[in-house]
Design a protein that fits this description.
- The chain has one helix spanning 36-42, and strands at 2-10, 13-19, 26-33.
- The chain is mainly beta.
- The protein starts with a strand and ends in a 30-residue tail after the last helix.
């Protein structure tokens, strides 16, 4: 899964519309966290609810809105 669009964000917590790279299915994720670990490790391992696939090695994580260690 990858982030198609962030729909809301409060500090580092966000909600987003996620899209499957394999089948194009979209799902709402209401529990995102905007840090490097979440973008690089959690999002690519999210299974699509329709086809059950996870991201392949070509997945490139987004950068965070705020820098690491930045107090919000």
């Amino acid at each position: 899964m990858k982030i198609q669009k962030i729909t809301s964000q409060s500090r580092r917590d966000f909600s987003a519309i996620m899209e499957c790279e394999h089948c194009g299915n979209t799902e709402i994720n209401n529990s995102g966290y905007d840090d490097a670990f979440y973008h690089a490790n959690v999002i690519p391992k999210m299974k699509c609810g329709k086809c059950g696939e996870i991201s392949d090695d070509s997945y490139r994580p987004l950068t965070t809105k705020y820098g690491e260690g930045e107090v919000i």
